[in-house]
Amino acid sequence: MKRKGESSSAKKKVPPAYRKSPVPTDVWTGTVERLAWGGKGVAHGADGRLLLLEAPLALFPGEAVEAKVQWKARHGEGRITRWVSRDSQRVPAGCPVAGTCGGCELWEAGDRAPDLKRQMVADLFHRQLGDAPWTWHPAPPEARRHRIQLHWDGAALGYFRRHSHALVPVSACPAAADVLSEALPRLRDALEGRALPSRPQRWELATGTPAGEVRASDEKGRSWRLEPDGWTRDEGPLTHRLAPGPLQHGPGAFFQVSPPWAARAFGGLLEGWDVRGDVLYDLYGGVGLFSALLGDRYARRVLVESGEEAVAWARRNLAALGLPSECHVADADAWVPEGLGAADDLILLDPPRTGLTAGLCERLQTAGAHTMVLVGCDGAAFCRDLKRLAPAWRVAGLAALDLFPLTSHVEAVALLRR
Q: Which residues span the membrane (predicted)?
């Protein structure tokens, strides 16, 4: 019976499409067939549906695993809970929290890690870009992180657990430069003893190049330098002495995770492509790394970066290197006009992880410059942007750089010609 004030439509059943029913979960056992982008293992269900598998440690093709899977209409997504059989080339993890920490997922791969990452990139490029030739640049054994971000919850210091904001306490980090790993207990002790601000927050430990001086920065941008007798307030810059010359930035600012290897990898790639000309448009230019790496191969540089502090450091860095530059504080997406550049110019773009906007890709179709370099730290967004640019630009060079050892992340770089 209809209650007073109730409309007849209120009695109708909710269509199944709008019900918040749980996604069916299944326990699946099978074999990893190949590796896909992001470190995912690829397999197939009994009914032929594609299955993407995620693991807290490295996956090897051919391994038999057990996973908890959520099946969707056309595919399944699963998290591996147990290895039924392990590849004989696995090695013991060199980290006590491997498998729980959310930072590195390629522990136990040992010397095979570069090849496993190459397989992931090959799968992505083949599926998204066809048979375009590309080069793989694996990280050298000495490549380590020069900055790490940690979390302090008021009682413990560490990294977030995978798929969680629960803390995994750490007292060392083998993925980081030795000086940072050794500074972890000193930072924890200072937080416990309230020698540093002890409210729960994110902290960054960073060092320059070569690794030596250690800085700790909090969420407010305040910085402390590690001394033998403790932490001392220090707002001075971090210095990276790289091949093109010294580059500086403020504590807590964005810079390459492994600066010595990144400068060598990017520098060698750009030199091999022999890009040179009149004006370099360094978009999303940060503190000037690419402008410095290209040095005097261009007569002038125009750097565009949204961060005011980063642009201030870019001006200082490029002036110190004797490189004439115009540095603008602006959103590169909004700054780029129709018809940017002339035939001898280079447009270099190093956008955030989300890649280029569709509108910027459209404007770049009209660019007057005949050469472009696109950098991307997310392979899927990078390939999407190359497709968007394809009507006016062809890929003349393609590379993947392993700038993030022990993780499934890579830096993709493309040389484009009109």
A: none
pLDDT in tens, 186-244: 999 999 999 999 999 999 999 999 999 999 999 999 999 999 999 999 999 999 999 99
User: How far, in Å, CA of 59 to CA of 142, rounded?
Assistant: 23
Burial 176-204 (b: 16+ CB within 10 A, else e): bbebbbebbebbbebbeeeebeeeeeebb
- On the question of pLDDT at 393 being above 90, the answer is yes
Residue 377 appears among annotated catalytic residues: yes
Mean residue pLDDT of the chain comes to: 93
Strands 277-283 and 346-349, how do they pair?
Answer: parallel
Residue 399 tokens read as 């590379």
Written as six digits, the tokens of 101 are 């920490």
Give the pLDDT band of residue 387 (cuts 50, 70, 90): very high
Packed helices 379-389 and 113-129: angle between N→C axes, nearest 10 degrees: 30
Distance between CA atoms of 277 and 261, rounded to whole angstroms? 26
Half-sphere exposure of 204 (CA within 13 A, CB side): 19
Q: Is 219 annotated as a binding residue?
A: no
Residue in 95, 327, 361, 377 annotated catalytic: 377
Each as own residue / partner, the long-range contacts of residues 331-337 (CB below 8 Å, 24 or more positions apart, any chain) are 331/306, 332/283, 332/284, 332/304, 332/305, 332/306, 332/360, 333/357, 333/359, 333/360, 335/283, 335/304, 336/283, 336/360, 336/363, 336/364, 337/363
Enter the DSSP assignment of 295.
G
Q: Residue 33's Cα: distance from chain center in Å?
A: 26
Q: Is 350 annotated in some ligand binding site?
A: yes
**Was domain 23-129 assigned CATH 2.40.50.140?**
yes
Q: What's the distance, CA 178 to chain centroid? A: 22
* Annotated binding-site residue? 256: yes
For the segment 105-152, what is each residue's pLDDT rounded down to a tens digit? Answer: 999 999 999 999 999 999 999 999 999 999 999 999 999 999 999 999
153 is in an annotated binding site: no
Superfamily of domain 135-140+258-417: Vaccinia Virus protein VP39 (3.40.50.150)
3-state class of 28 per DSSP?
strand
Strand order across the 25-31 sheet: 25-31, 64-71, 75-85, 50-54, 41-44, 34-35
Q: What is the DSSP letter of 209?
A: B
- Alpha-carbon distances of 273 from 22, 36, 90, 145, 348, rounded to whole Å: 52, 28, 37, 27, 13
Residue 322's contacts (CB-CB under 8 Å, 6 or more residues apart) are none
